[in-house]
Design a protein that fits this description.
single chain, 116 residues, alpha+beta, four-stranded antiparallel beta sheet, rod-shaped
Length: 116
């Protein structure tokens, strides 16, 4: 008898209305990774931006030693034994020798500088 009364009392008791632990909204990364198209385009964008930044950086970077020689008056001895004099202009991918006075070479071309 007591078990029947206890069972009826347990059935009559209201169920607790505990909502449970609060769930946080999904993070931005979870939302992005659920959309695979966005992951593809973000990866592609990252690759292109990295390539552009590295290319710009390498194009602007100059040799540390040659950078110190910019605008110096130098003598350059070619492999044929000819000596050239002029001011040195240093670029990221080469060196230009600007002659003191322009001249015409053996092919009658007016020259004011030479790329080394």
């Amino acid at each position: 008898m007591w078990t029947a009364l206890l069972a009826q009392a347990a059935d009559a008791a209201p169920a607790p209305t505990d909502p449970g632990p609060a769930t946080a909204p999904p993070s931005t990364w979870v939302v992005i990774f659920q959309n695979l198209d966005a992951v593809f385009w973000l990866t592609l964008l990252f690759i292109f931006l990295t390539a552009i930044i590295v290319t710009i950086f390498n194009a602007r970077r100059k040799d540390k030693c040659l950078k110190l020689l910019r605008d110096y008056h130098v003598s350059y001895l070619t492999t044929t034994g000819q000596t050239l004099w002029g001011d040195l202009v240093v670029y990221a991918r080469g060196i230009e020798l600007e002659f003191d006075t322009p001249y015409r070479n053996s092919r009658n071309i007016h020259k004011s500088s030479a790329l080394i």
